Amino acid sequence: MNYKKTLRLFWSQNKIVLCALVGFCVLIACKSKQATSEQRQEQNWEEKALRPTEDFLLFYKKFHDDSVFQLASIVFPLEGLPDQADPDYIGSDKFYYTRDTWVIQTGSLESNKDFDHEFKVILPTLIEDIYTHKENKIKVIRRFAKASEGWRLIYYAGLNFYKNQE
Questions:
Q1: CB within 8 A of 107, min separation 6: which ones?
Q2: What are the distances in angstroms from CA 36 to CA 26, 62, 79?
Q3: pTM (2 d.p.)
Q4: 119 inside domain
Q5: 129 Cβ neighbours under 8 A, 6+ residues apart
Q6: Range(s) of the domain holding residue 8
């Protein structure tokens, strides 16, 4: 009997505290669920942002399949580096390709199993295209930008060794 009285007394005196504690726990659980949902939305956005868009992939395929389209899609003079540039030279002086010195890109590296390929989506309108040789780490780097007239190649660095900038 004493036990029941003590329990009733405790409940009557601490009703507000217990209700507040339960409410606080519910609030924390809801906030946690909301934060998880926001994190999932942000992660989905980041995953989408890290992949090239469908319009870029269509452009990229046509760029390699159609030489006339390719030439029309390059901003000449095109900044970049020639193949086999001196590693100490890289970054010190500017080099430009002209329409006359440009060699049509056929996508041959794409089918070469000795190279890893990655797209780095820097911005939704700026994509870096990198081919890296699996053994000796030489690379080809291209940058594409989207302007009002569509995607354009704005930078091309031929097959070279590059120092890590990380």
A1: 64, 65
A2: 15, 41, 44
A3: 0.67
A4: yes
A5: 60, 117, 119, 141, 142, 143, 144
A6: 1-49
Q: Coil, helix or strand for 120? A: strand
Structure tokens at 76: 């000449």
For residue 161, the one-letter residue type is F
Q: Is 1 part of a structural domain of the chain?
A: yes
Same domain, 74 and 142: yes
Furthest CA-CA distance within the chain? 102
Query: Mean pLDDT by 10-residue block, N- to C-terminus, for the chain (166 residues)?
Result: 59 54 57 57 54 95 96 96 76 85 86 91 96 92 96 95 64
Beta strand 74-81 with 150-160 is parallel
Listed residue (111, 132, 129) closest to 119, CA to CA: 129
